[in-house]
Design a protein that fits this description.
This protein is an all-alpha fold and 115 residues long. 75% of the residues lie in helices and 0% in strands. The protein has a domain of 79 residues. The N and C termini lie far apart (48 Å).
């Protein structure tokens, strides 16, 4: 399965932007994120897939991956979560993507007003 870092250029940008709402849904789930400690990646994959099935399926579609078994679903979800949570730039991107443009614009305007 290709991960986010396997895509480059415009195609990579498109994949990141398309997946952003689904990743954001998962990483904003406090119950899931707090429950990750002391879990194996496969346990994380199962937990995330069961809690966010539609979001995971949309990410598989966007990333051109079609798991055909339960093991495939859990493994693919674990791989995606590992890539997101193990790379600081990737997690920062998705955290930033989860913030609304309006709040970012308001913050920028406040900063400009102070200057």
């Amino acid at each position: 399965m290709k991960g986010f870092n396997d895509y480059t250029g415009v195609e990579g940008i498109d994949k990141l932007v398309e997946c952003a709402p689904y990743v954001t849904e998962i990483i904003k789930d406090k119950k899931i994120m707090e429950g990750l400690s002391n879990k194996t990646w496969l346990e994380v994959g199962a937990m995330v897939y069961k809690a966010h099935t539609k979001a995971c399926n949309k990410m598989f579609e966007i990333l051109d991956h079609k798991p055909e078994s339960s093991l495939g679903l859990v493994s693919a979800t674990a791989q995606i979560m590992s890539e997101i949570l193990s790379d600081e730039d990737t997690i920062d991107f998705f955290i930033s993507a989860g913030k609304s443009a309006k709040s970012s614009t308001s913050a920028m305007e406040s900063t400009e007003d102070e200057q």
